[in-house]
Amino acid sequence: xxxxxxxPLETSLDAESLDSxxxxxxxxxxxxxxxxxxxxxLLALLATQETIALDDLTDVLVGMATTTDGPAGPxxxxxxxxxxxxxxxxxxxxxxxxxxxxxxxEVRLRSLPDAVYELFEFADEYERAVENRQ
Length: 134
Fold this sequence. Notes:
Order of helices and strands: HHHEHEEHEEH
Distance between the termini: 25 Å
Strand order of the largest sheet: 1-5-4
InterPro entries: DUF7344, WH-like_DNA-bd_sf, WH_DNA-bd_sf
Domain DUF7344: 31-108
Oligomer: single chain
Protein name: ArsR family transcriptional regulator
Pfam family, one: DUF7344
Region (Disordered): 1-27
Shape: globular
Structural class: mainly alpha
Mean pLDDT: 83
Number of domains: 1
Largest sheet: 3 strands, antiparallel
Low-confidence stretches: none
């Protein structure tokens, strides 16, 4: 279905941009990765720094979360860390988007095509725009 304003989609995606990176995640894996808010936040954070420790990543994600009673507490922190270790990081690792060293707790974004970073950016911008309309 075409957008109502018939504006063409602008993207820098081409075969050359895909060849410039060693990792080319399959489309289903890539879209599954950005289908979750915590994973989008994680990917956006990793795009700004080379590596991050699992506990620091948990701190940042918990800091972004709020509960109906106010800021997240220790129970929420533990829950976010469990979700990262058992759900989000395995999915992102399997998709080839991140590397996670269980021994050191270091998480790193892998080298990806520019179009993948553009998708991360678009997903973040879209989410903020939707939140601002509510």
